[in-house]
Amino acid sequence: MENSDLFVCIDHVAYVGPDNEDAVKYYTEVLGWHELHREVNEEQGVFEIMVAPAAELTEHMTQVQLIQPTRPDATTAKWLEKNRPGLHHMAWRVADIDAVSATLRERGVRLLYDEPRIGTGGSKINFMHPKSGKGVLIEIVQPGTGH
Ligand code: V0V
Ligand code: CO
């Protein structure tokens, strides 16, 4: 793939904390953001709420993903044992996750999953290991229909 075809925009930036209802109340009531979507992803062990600075998403608007772990063995629960609540990952939107994954692997980037898994709103997701993200956990996401 050409470099200019790899990534579309920053889809979301994810915050991990122990209490999502408290976090979303702060975002909506104090900061004036809008709740757009919420769901539980059993596979990832997360309760997530997507918030945005506007009530309607524009094409390349970045959302904040508020995450609360749903079980003690979730990756985010383990992360919370080692870190204070705060920024956990950022997600880069792609149009074709299989093509982008193949190109990244060719270039030596370490992706966590052999095949994409299901994320928010039926999206397809994978993650670059922090060692391949200059110390940052980076998700790649191909939006689903409910995104
Ligand atoms: C761990 N490390 C991080 C990190 N988590 N660095 C930056 N940001 C993070 N969030 C570093 C950590 O400091 C260590 O560095 C090293 O990685 C290994 O960490 P560990 O504590 O031993 O943890 P591991 O290896 O058990 O797990 C780390 C990985 C895990 C990244 C493999 O968190 C994972 O599988 N993440 C992908 C799934 C995920 O995060 N799901 C929740 C979001 P040193 O000490 O070795 O230098 S779900 C989501 O976003 C959805 C559904 C969506 O958007 O649709
Ligand atoms: Co995410």
UniProtKB/TrEMBL annotation:
GO terms for molecular function: metal ion binding; methylmalonyl-CoA epimerase activity. The keyword Metal-binding applies. GO terms for biological process: L-methylmalonyl-CoA metabolic process. It comes from the Bacteria. Residues 9-143 form the VOC domain. InterPro entries: Glyas_Bleomycin-R_OHBP_Dase, MeMalonyl-CoA_epimerase, MMCE/EMCE_epimerase, VOC_core. Keywords: Metal-binding. Belongs to the methylmalonyl-CoA epimerase family. NCBIfam families: metmalonyl_epim. This is Methylmalonyl-CoA epimerase. The lineage of its organism: Bacteria, Bacillati, Actinomycetota, Actinomycetes, Propionibacteriales.
